[in-house]
């Protein structure tokens, strides 16, 4: 089969090979013909060598949608031809975290595309428990955005216990996860303040847009009549940390699931306790939440900036950091062929 594969870290070492052995299924696995794959920063980290990976040579790709090609002997919920998405968490199902419904925290876990081969290939093999059927009418673009880009902010806002009528500030609101967070903020009944220079975030439901980055705190102060935000979502890291922390109001929550611009931040403990601020880390989401996303998928949308072919996997990864980027990047692997 054809796959994007690398032996040594570095984007320049990512090659398109036509003779990669098609993965074999066990009795509990399914073989999926990949349709569209999401391209995320995690895939860039994998290829550039900043994450430990298995196996080597390695196929990246953490966000996969496709069609079942073959189902193992003991697979009961899926059959050839089903349209599916892949929950990208490797988990054992037996540790204390899994037993408490937190399979994304599995003590023996990892990520598909990192700890196993991923979906930048014509085919991928995954256990049945990781695979979820999607409705016929769901666009592949959205399907390929549910497992990582949509699940992550959904889980984060649940962790932050966002409530009706609270104010939610989203830094990086036009990013992959930001545009989904706006939609969930509205669904949860919050007043959504999007920090972004892109006016189109309004189409995703943002109540207010702050485009002047140097006046963010002042603007939030105005918009909340001095109360500041109940929940702030900042997945950008150090660059926006100071402003995001200053934007949290009394008894507020600051939630993060990423540190693209750097992970080491300064924290004033006195401001933390005197305002009774809660700092919340969040990672991935649960399988139950995946099913919730599929249920509400008709009401969700994503914005695609560019689609690349599998042959252009390297260009797709480079495009992640393109200053002109204005929406998602996807690999169209077999949708148009
Ligand atoms: Zn576990």
What proportion strand?
Answer: 15-25%
Shape: globular
Instruction: Write down how many β-strands occur, each being a DSSP E stretch of 2 or more residues.
Output: 17
What is the CATH top level name of the largest domain? Answer: Alpha Beta
Secondary-structure-derived class = alpha/beta
Total count of domains: 2
Give every kind of bound small molecule, once each. zinc ion
Task: Give the ordered list of helices and strands.
Answer: EEEHEEEHEEEHHEHEEHEHEHEHEHE
CATH superfamily of the largest domain: Medium-chain alcohol dehydrogenases, catalytic domain
Intertermini distance: 15 Å
Helix content: 10-25%
Uncertain runs are: none
Question: What is the third-level CATH name, the topology of the largest domain?
Answer: Quinone Oxidoreductase, Chain A, domain 1
Rg is: 20 Å
Corresponding CATH architecture of the largest domain: Alpha-Beta Complex
Q: What's the quick description here?
A:
The chain is an alpha/beta fold and 337 residues long. It has helices spanning 41-48, 96-99, 140-143, 146-159, 176-187, 216-223, 238-246, 269-274, 287-295, 313-319; strands at 3-5, 15-17, 29-38, 63-71, 83-86, 89-90, 110-111, 123-127, 131-133, 167-171, 191-195, 208-210, 229-233, 248-256, 278-281, 304-309, 328-332.
């Amino acid at each position: 089969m054809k796959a994007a594969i690398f032996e040594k870290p570095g984007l320049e070492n990512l090659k398109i090979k036509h003779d990669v052995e098609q993965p074999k299924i066990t009795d509990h696995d399914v073989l999926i013909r990949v349709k569209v794959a999401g391209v995320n920063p995690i895939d860039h980290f994998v290829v550039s060598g900043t994450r430990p990976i298995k196996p080597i040579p390695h196929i990246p790709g953490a966000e996969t949608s496709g069609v079942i090609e073959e189902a193992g002997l003991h697979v009961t919920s899926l059959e050839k031809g089903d349209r599916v998405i892949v929950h990208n968490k490797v988990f054992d199902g037996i540790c204390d975290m899994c037993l408490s419904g937190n399979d994304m925290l599995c003590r023996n876990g990892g990520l598909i595309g990192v700890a196993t081969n991923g979906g930048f290939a014509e085919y991928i093999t995954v256990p049945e428990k990781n695979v979820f059927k999607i409705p016929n009418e769901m666009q592949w673009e959205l399907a390929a955005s549910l497992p990582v880009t949509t699940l992550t902010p959904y889980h984060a806002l649940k962790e932050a216990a966002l409530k009706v009528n609270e104010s939610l500030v989203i830094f990086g609101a036009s990013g992959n996860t930001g545009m989904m967070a706006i939609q969930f903020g509205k669904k949860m009944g919050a007043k959504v303040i999007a920090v972004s220079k892109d006016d189109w975030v309004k189409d995703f439901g943002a109540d207010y847009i702050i485009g002047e980055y140097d006046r963010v705190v002042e603007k939030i102060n105005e918009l909340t009549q001095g109360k500041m935000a109940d929940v702030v979502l900042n997945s950008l890291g150090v660059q926006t940390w100071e402003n995001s922390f200053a934007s949290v109001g009394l008894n507020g929550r600051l939630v993060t699931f990423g540190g693209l611009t750097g992970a080491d931040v300064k924290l004033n403990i006195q401001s933390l306790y005197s305002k009774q601020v809660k700092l919340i880390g969040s990672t991935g989401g649960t399988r139950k939440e995946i099913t919730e996303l599929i249920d509400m998928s008709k009401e969700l949308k994503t914005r695609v900036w560019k689609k690349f072919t599998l042959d252009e996997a390297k260009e797709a990864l480079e495009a992640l950091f393109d200053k002109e980027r204005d929406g998602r990047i996807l690999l169209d692997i077999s949708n148009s062929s």
